């Protein structure tokens, strides 16, 4: 069985106690081969660490040359004369790296139907060559969809920190996620 506790979901036979803590259940007779994470499996207050990645100067320049070709990201000489003294990662590069870690840690198994939006994206500090970025997310809210009884809405906050534990990026994200069983008529909830 796959360990799902680090993806914001209790393992089979465990229940969420508070903010990600789990405890063994008395009824451990359930066996499931389905590792899909449905709307009902996601608990508000759960915090998940998604791992980390280190960003190289070459990756910063390569991403920026393709997607955000400002001198501060691509030109070593111009960047050396900037307040940063070196190239810094495009904010969109940082955002893309965080999404990859989120998918690997949790969303890859989540029954996502669609992304509904990203809000309050804030870049707090530059990402420099050699920085190791760690990503965590917290489930802020879950609610049934009003318009789609087969789905629910998950609202989460995402924080990216560098190796000095300095926050470099924050955002909030909402997703439409499949329910294990569609809601009864009149039981809907959100979008």
From TrEMBL:
Q: Which residues form the signal peptide?
A: none
Originating species: Halopenitus malekzadehii
Outline the segment boundaries, as ranges, of region: Disordered: 1-34
* Superkingdom classification of source: Archaea
Q: List compositional bias (Low complexity) regions by residue number.
A: 12-23
Q: What protein am I looking at?
A: Acyl dehydratase
Lineage here is: Archaea, Methanobacteriati, Methanobacteriota, Stenosarchaea group, Halobacteria
All residue ranges annotated as the MaoC-like domain in the record: 51-145
Among CDD domains, the record links this protein to:
YdeM
């Amino acid at each position: 069985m796959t360990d799902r506790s680090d993806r914001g979901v209790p393992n089979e036979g465990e229940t969420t106690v508070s903010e990600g803590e789990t405890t063994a259940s008395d009824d451990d007779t359930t066996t499931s081969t389905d590792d899909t994470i449905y709307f009902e499996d996601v608990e508000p207050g759960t915090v998940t660490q998604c791992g980390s990645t280190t960003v190289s100067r070459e990756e910063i320049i390569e991403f920026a040359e393709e997607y955000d070709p400002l001198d501060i990201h691509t030109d070593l000489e111009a960047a050396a004369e900037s307040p940063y003294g070196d190239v810094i990662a495009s904010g969109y590069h940082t955002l893309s790296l965080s999404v990859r870690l989120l998918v690997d840690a949790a969303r890859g198994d989540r029954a996502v139907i669609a992304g509904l939006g990203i809000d309050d994206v804030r870049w707090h500090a530059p990402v420099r060559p050699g920085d190791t970025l760690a990503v965590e997310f917290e489930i802020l809210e879950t609610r049934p969809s009003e318009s789609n009884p087969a789905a629910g809405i998950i609202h989460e906050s995402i924080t990216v920190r560098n190796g000095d534990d300095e926050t470099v990026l924050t955002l909030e994200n909402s997703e439409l996620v499949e329910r294990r069983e569609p809601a009864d008529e009149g039981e809907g909830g959100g979008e």
